[in-house]
Amino acid sequence: MLENSLMGNIQGLYPKTNQSKVPFIGELAIEHDLMFIALTETHLKEEIGNAEIAVTNYTPFRADRENRSHGGVITYVRNDLAPDTVPLLVYSNGQVELLVIKIKSLNLLIFNCYRPPSCTLVNFTKAYREMHKLIEDLPTPMPDIIICGDFNFPFIHWPEGSIITGATREEQDQASLTFELSDKFFLTQLITKPTRKNNTIDLLFTNIQDLLSDHTVEKTIFSDHNLVHLHTRYRKAKDQVDTDTPPSHNRFSALNFDSEAVNWSDFHTALTNKNWDHILSDKDPNAMLDTMLNTILSECQFYVPKRRKPALARHLTIPRDRKILMRKRSSLLKQLDNARGEERKLALSIKIANIESKLKESHEHQRQREENRAIENIKRNPKFFCSYCRRFSKIKTKVGPLRTELGESVNDHARVSQVLKEQYERVFSKPKPSCVIRDPASFFTEDIGLQDHLTNGRRPERSHQATESKFSSWTRWNTCYSSNKVPGLPLPTRPQALAALARHWSGSRSAKTSSHHSCLQRG
C-alpha cells in the first residue's frame, strides 16, 4: 500500500480554544493514515506545549516564530516512523521559519518552510543560506529531499516556473534565489493546482522525479488555503509478526495497585499464611512460577480493587454522524476533481460547504457536551473537570501588582518576585535573641509609663488605648518572627498575655477609683 501525506497553510492551530483545529487535523490523519503532515502558519508560542497540539499516533516537530505572533511551521510524523526521525534544523529569524527533519528509515529529508508576503530580501537570503548549506553538506549519494511550504509567490506561473508581471524587484530577487536552489540541486516543483484562490503558493520541491503518483487539493472552512493531499510512491512497511513467540499477557494488569483502597497488611498476612511448600511441591520451575503467580492473583482479588477501563481520548471517539459526513465529504471531493462544467462544480462546492458547516457544528456540540459533563460531575469526577479546564481554559493567573512597605506599587515580574522573596524571608526568619519576650506580663508595662500617666492625672482610657494599640501593632501576623522588629507572641501564649493585661488594668482602675473616692471624701 502506498503512503499518503498532507501539506498546507492552516492559518493558526489555536489549541485550548473553541476554534481549535487540532481535532480536525486528527480526523484527517485517522481517515487517510498519513505518513507526515506539514503545516505552515501555526501561530504557536513557546508556552504552548506539545501535549496541547497532540494528534493521536503522531509526533510533532515544530519551529515557532520568536517573540512575535503568527508564522511558525509544524510537521507531524506518524509514530511508526517517529523513532527514526531526528530534527536537523529549527530556524526562525522573525519572518521566515524553516524546519528540517530526517526520517532515517526512509533516507528522507523533509523541509517545511513559511515565507510571509511581506518578507524582506535580507531575511529570505538568510533562510536560503541555511537551506543551501544543509543540502550542500549532505553525503553522497544524496538522500531523498522534499521541500514544502507556503512561499507566497503568486507571481510565478507553474509548471513553467516563469515570473509574470505584478511582482516587485525584491520579490523577484527572492524568487530567483528559489530557482537557483532548485537548479543547483536538481529539484522539481510538483504542485500545479491552485492552493489559494487561483494562485499556486504552497509548493513542493523534490529531487525524486516520480515522488507523487498524484496530488489533490481540498477546500476547507478552517483556512483560505487549500490543503494538498500527496499520494506518494513510498510503500508502507509491513509489520513483521513473530509467530514462534506466544503473546505475553500481564495477568495483574486489571488490578489497581496504586489505589488507596489496597489493604496491604491483610494482603501480606494472607500470603504469609499460605503453605508454599505444599503448593509448590513436585513441580518443575515453570509450573512453580505459574502456580505462584496464580495463587497471588487469587489473593489480590480480595484486597486489591480492579482498575477502571481507560476512557477513549476525545479525538478517538468520533461520533457516528460525523464519520458519515466525513465519508460524504471525501466522496464529493473526488467528484469535484473529476467534474466538468462550472455548474456541476458549483453544485458540488455548495454541497461540500454545507457538509463543512455541519462538521463544524458537530465539533461545537461535542465541545458543549463535554463542558456540560465537566460541570455536572465536578464533585463526583473532579479529575475530568481539571483536565477539561487545562485543555480549554483561556485564563492565566497573574501575580501583581504588589505594594511594598514604603507604599510603592510594583508590577515588574522580576521586582514582584524579589518583593515576595523578601517578605517570605522576613516572615520566616529567626527572631533576634534580644527581642525575645520572656515574661508576657512585662510586655505591657515596659516603655508605656502607666504609673506616670496615673500620677500625672492623665485619664486611664488614653493609657488603655495606647497599650491596646501597641499590642495590636506588635502582634500582627505579618510581623511575627520578624528579624528587624519585636516578634509577636506565639498563639498559645496570647490568652495568658490578654489575661495579664486584664489583671493589670483592673488593678490600675480600682486603685485610681479608690484614690478618687478618698479625694472626694476629703473634699
TrEMBL record:
Pfam family, one: Exo_endo_phos_2
GO cellular component, one term: extracellular matrix
Gene3D superfamilies tied to this protein: Endonuclease/exonuclease/phosphatase
GO molecular function, one term: catalytic activity
Span of domain Endonuclease/exonuclease/phosphatase: 109-228
InterPro entries the UniProt entry points to: Endo/exonu/phosph_ase_sf, Endo/exonuclease/phosphatase
Protein name, as recorded: Endonuclease/exonuclease/phosphatase domain-containing protein
